[in-house]
TrEMBL record, chains A, B:
Identification of the protein by name: Glutamate-1-semialdehyde 2,1-aminomutase
Keywords attached to this entry: Pyridoxal phosphate
A GO MF term: transaminase activity
Entries under InterPro entries matching the protein: Aminotrans_3, PyrdxlP-dep_Trfase, PyrdxlP-dep_Trfase_major, PyrdxlP-dep_Trfase_small
UniProt family annotation: Belongs to the class-III pyridoxal-phosphate-dependent aminotransferase family.
Cofactor: pyridoxal 5'-phosphate
SUPFAM superfamilies: PLP-dependent transferases
Pfam families documented for this protein: Aminotran_3
Length: 406, 406
């Protein structure tokens, strides 16, 4: 009989005191067998589970880790701010610095507000669109993820019909469906909430079609509705100017979180002057929304991404991984689809509706010290080097061989 | 012409890049003139603003600081966890330790889940009550604060009627109004959400009447609805067993945040086994909900509160402050009302509908290095010593003299 591993022991303890053993998107029960639930530490692009196994990590904590764990510039800023103070009776100067920084970086932004969760940011954007317009309808793409409270959680359990009375859906990148939804909203259209690109769980990703993004902008201008880009997942990985800047469209409001502070809990809303007055009047707040350490971390993170052109570096390493995987798949005659920006790759297998091939492939990579996700988009960080990518490609080569042998 | 202070300079910068200069409950525009907006550092029960002025602080960051800033045991736990890792691809062992700790401390709790804002916790409780029952109505006390998203924010701007379709109100401590609300909910009653005690902004506080709390429990039992105690603000200051334990009533679900991790961003929901299944099925999550540093801070905070009977210490120091203020007010013949538990005191003046006396009093105390709030309940921490209370009482004595002279 095999001895229990530390991960198994912790899962058994967790099963007693945490419903289902774990909550939310980090629940390892959603992953193939063999994935660890509990982690011990991180360093750069490496991660150690509680069993002492090391991985080259391509999830980056599902987005937050953009410079790698323990980036010295962030650590220094965090330690300096912690020595002064974090959660005080009001903000520190870091709040102003960070707001100034975002206004300078983001062409669309005249102001910023801060919170803790991506869901806080998307919810504030929706509230602002309604407050500014006095209207109610919000358009969202079918299947898009915008958070996990009743108006947006993908699981309807515990949600009432009224939580979504004023949501109307369209299909991402489909101008006709967008126009239909705008018509249905009529003179009650408050805003259009749209992800930086289509990154739905379990599907190929789709970059935004410039015809679509321009039409979103035109329709918002024609109806005086808010164009809200949900940049929570994609923000600061493809560009530091806001993801839709790449297709030449500026939003009215943007929601940010994840990568903004390299793993420290922070979210932000940025907006233009049309929404400044409403933003000064709505009441949104939280006990830790002014905490200075996460803001010091964000300033240091944005500094570092800007100084070393982080998006270009992540794109180059992501492309190296993508090219290597494409060559390996072709060599063994396995059909795969790699989608999305190289910095946030999704890898899906052809003829794999039940994800059996993807599950097998990622399990085999995991065994060889590479943490991939079989269904969700992955994330590069600036800590990934060519050597890390090449190490990963050795693992994926072996994993393709196993899949091919089945 | 007087030179601008650092606080004034920061306010001017903030006015350009933050709507209204500041958002949420920490907006100093809601306070009397003379209160600083920006802070430099904290230590123990002391706080320094950016102008270099030091205060004995009775707001404790509006609740989170329960052991004082830079408590060595919390700092040590935080540094140790930071050196390992914080935001990883899953939780660390700290998650399990903290859940086990809460289950051991809280008589009502069989399990725990974690998030970042008090609003996350109250929203999860409401979602759970609906998920478990398949019903929709939630009863809340008129005027009670349960968070700042559309279903609960005190400001209706940007909120739709449907966000509150299924909320019904009663009057805190009023059994008849509670029974009427239960009747109105009929067979659609999912839960009753009630604050640990009545702590509404600008009103005298009211401790829960045991007749009322027992009736809440009876009505929930009779209808199979969830009794949810919102312990976000009061939790861990009056007792470590959940605030309604003091009146002999156990909730089904409790919401926690603020003091749980001595200023680190963390919230929790605890529940009993009736809600375990629903809690394993709803989907609630956030990018930083598994971050280990805040959980390490929480374990250290609860250790320290337990080891040194933090609630008793805060009660004693709060009582010393209350007794001193009562004697000072009587000596100058000014009518004041001190309400709520001594650990979370509210001080209001008689015949002061516009808060002019309270504003003057707190401004005068502020000038003398004591940070009080004129309308909201205040907070003690275990860092307050007799010397700090006596220092504060010198300031309040002078402040009463100024009020009496008007």
């Amino acid at each position: 009989m095999q001895a229990e591993t530390p991960d198994q022991k912790l899962r058994a303890r967790a099963a007693r005191v945490i419903p289902g053993g774990m909550f939310g998107h980090l629940n390892a029960n959603r992953l193939p067998e063999g994935y660890p639930q509990f982690f011990e530490r991180g360093d750069g692009c490496h991660l150690w589970d509680v069993n002492g196994r090391r991985y080259v990590d391509f999830m980056c904590s599902w987005g937050p880790i953009v410079l790698g764990h323990h980036h010295p510039a962030v650590t220094e800023a965090v330690q300096r701010q912690m020595a002064a103070g974090d959660c005080l009776n009001g903000p520190s100067e870091r709040l102003v610095e960070l707001a100034e920084r975002l206004v300078r970086l983001l062409p669309h932004a005249d102001w910023a507000m801060f919170s803790k969760n991506g869901t806080d940011a998307t919810t504030t954007c929706v509230t602002l669109a309604r407050a500014a317009s006095g209207r109610r309808k919000i358009l969202v793409a079918q299947g898009a993820y915008h958070g996990a409270i009743p108006w947006c959680t993908p699981n309807p359990l515990g949600v009432t019909a009224e939580d979504r009375t004023h949501l109307l859906t369209f299909t991402y990148n489909d101008v006709a469906s967008l126009e239909t939804a705008v018509q249905r909203a009529g003179d009650d259209l408050a805003g259009i909430l749209v992800s930086a690109f289509r990154h739905d769980y379990g599907f190929d990703q789709e970059l935004p079609d410039p015809l679509f993004t321009r039409r979103v902008r035109e329709l918002c201008d024609a109806t005086n509705a808010a164009l809200i880009v949900d940049d929570v997942r994609a923000g600061f990985r493809m560009t530091l100017r806001g993801s839709w800047d790449l297709v030449g469209v500026q939003p009215d409001l943007s929601a940010w979180s994840k990568a903004i502070a390299n793993g420290h809990a922070l979210a932000a809303v940025t907006g233009n002057d049309r929404y400044r007055d409403a933003a000064s009047k709505i009441f949104v707040t939280g006990s830790f929304w002014c905490s200075a350490v996460s803001m010091a971390a964000a300033v240091a993170t944005l500094d570092e991404l800007e100084r070393n052109d982080g998006p270009a570096r992540m794109r180059a390493m992501g492309q190296r991984l993508r090219d290597g995987i494409a060559a390996q798949a072709a060599a063994v005659g396995i059909g795969v689809r790699q989608s999305g920006p190289p910095q946030m790759p999704t890898l899906l297998f052809d003829d794999d509706a039940d994800f059996a091939k993807g599950d097998l492939f990622t399990r085999e990579a995991l065994k060889r010290g590479v943490y991939l996700h079989p269904r969700h988009n992955m994330f590069l960080s600036t800590a990934h080097t060519e050597a890390d990518i090449d190490f990963a490609l050795e693992a994926t080569k072996a994993a393709f061989d196993v899949v091919a042998a089945r």
